[in-house]
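Page 47, continued from p. 46.
Same chain as before, 369 aa.
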Amino acid sequence: MRNIPWYRRYTELQNEVTSLKEEFKSRCLHLGVDPNKVFEETRKEIIARIVHESNWQEGLYLDQGRTKELADAVFEETSGIEGPHIDINSIVETHRNRVIKFKREGLSIEELASYNLSFAHVTLGWIATELAERLVALLVYALDGFGEIYPRIKQQVPAESRRAIDTGFEIIDQLKSDGGEVHYPLTGNIGTQGELIKELEKVSFESLLSRMRIDYIHLLHRITMMGILPRRKIGVFRKAAVHVGDPDVFFPSVSTVPKLMEEFCESFPMILRITVQHDPIKKAAEASYKFVRIHPYADGNGRISRLLMNLVLWGHYPPVYLKADKKGRHRYSQALKRANRGNIEPLACLIAISLQEIYKKLLAAINVI
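Result:
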């Protein structure tokens, strides 16, 4: 066994994850099932583990069994929310009412934190879906604009390119007529995917081009910290300086946070699979680290950073957890310190290690003899 430290093995770990991903996909296809369906069916188990590890990172100790009960309750209760943009007010109000009910029933802070973070992961899926839908609408918007001049120049376009463009217009027609249901809470009376695409076409090009919205991040913070922080401190940027972690690191001053978060959103990586030309694992590490370095909230920054990490991975890999045992916390601390010195690979290594473990567990579950 080579004595290469874990934080210098990124290329090796990345290759191993790719190999495991392909092995998992091949095994699912051999069994005649869609790999994405398997992910969806095991998602609750993975999220329960994520919540457990994330809370332990924050010093909130609740056993795995109770954590799983609370995570399961979230999935059972979110199907009733109804609502072309994600209905933030409805989501927050529904969650607030549940938290009030739980506090009256005497749930501990640890239990409430577990419930909140589980629901934040459900909401993360809705945010990811909306970001993907907006990127699809952007492509439709661009091709529709070209459609105004295309008939005049069509015969001048090489035959192969012409076939590709014609196929693109056919796909747009299919998207606009898609009668599939929309499965996340929206404002308005949008019932089908086709109606959603038509409605998003009315949104400005600049708005569709936005990869992330601060409103989404505030939403995740409001859900995650509901009933834990005072109401005036959830979903709003901090009003005071912070002093945590490495004493040699200065966090941004209060007045710079809004603009830094605006830049963070503008540089957020695209998550739609066909548009991605970067390494999702490294980009997930970068997004998580940048958020922690800005430290925009009074509390809960670590939890939100790990949620955003999984948002970047969405559509590419299953969600990950960073282990919070003594060894895991030490590695996470070391990875952040190395990132402070400009080396993001150790944090990417931790994500890759988690993906390795998850794929191995998934494979073990479907390789039963």
